[in-house]
Amino acid sequence: MATTQLDPRIARTRRMLQSALLDLAREQPLDEITVAEIADRAEVNRSSFYQHYSDKETLLADALDAQAAAVGADLSSLDAAMVPGDPPPELLLRYTRHVFAHAALYRLALGEHGSSIAVARLRNRIAVVVMAGYAQYGQDEGDLGMPVELAAASIAGSLLGMLIAWLESTDPVPPEQMAVWIWNALARPRC
User: Fold this and answer.
1) Domains of the chain, CATH where assigned
2) How far from chain centre, in Å, is Cα 101?
3) DSSP output for 9-60
4) Lesser CB count within 10 Å: N end or C end of the chain?
């Protein structure tokens, strides 16, 4: 299957916009950042912003995705082979370490005044992993007592809630412990 390569100029402009937003988010509340500030920081004009993004929430979601992918922590490639008691896979450890290292940014993105798009993307990625696990173990609506999509959404919402609570904790556990808890929660429904 062939993948389309993004024009280098487009990729560069998107990286500049993502970087500008992330830098600004470290300086002020996300909901106070304007498109004009993002464009100024990225050294592009506002029309360039809108050529690449419809809004700053989509930009933030893309920026978080790009950061996670850059450190090899893209949850989209998490293997659905989950066995309770097994240690979490390295990918999940990289992800929790990445989130922990950028906790302030993720608190902004996933918190009450954050990005609904970033929250939805993360919830959907987790749900896909859960559905793959159900499929791997041959579990269907009859086994789960509800449609697979609803069961997966339930687990995804719970795990997202765990992540947010961890980020908001005044004394968060180390990312390695959080990865274990997430892995156990992911593996448990398939037992």
Assistant:
1) 8-53 (1.10.10), 68-190 (no CATH)
2) 14
3) HHHHHHHHHHHHHHHHHTTS-GGG--HHHHHHHHT--HHHHHHH-SSHHHHH
4) N
- Residues of the chain short of pLDDT 50, as ranges, are 1-2, 190-191
Q: d(Cα 26, Cα 107) in Å, to the nearest integer?
A: 11
User: Residue 191's pLDDT is what?
Assistant: 41
Whole-number pLDDT of residue 132 = 84
Token pair 């041959």: residue: 138
Q: What is the pLDDT of residues 95-108, one digit of tens each?
A: 999 999 999 889 98
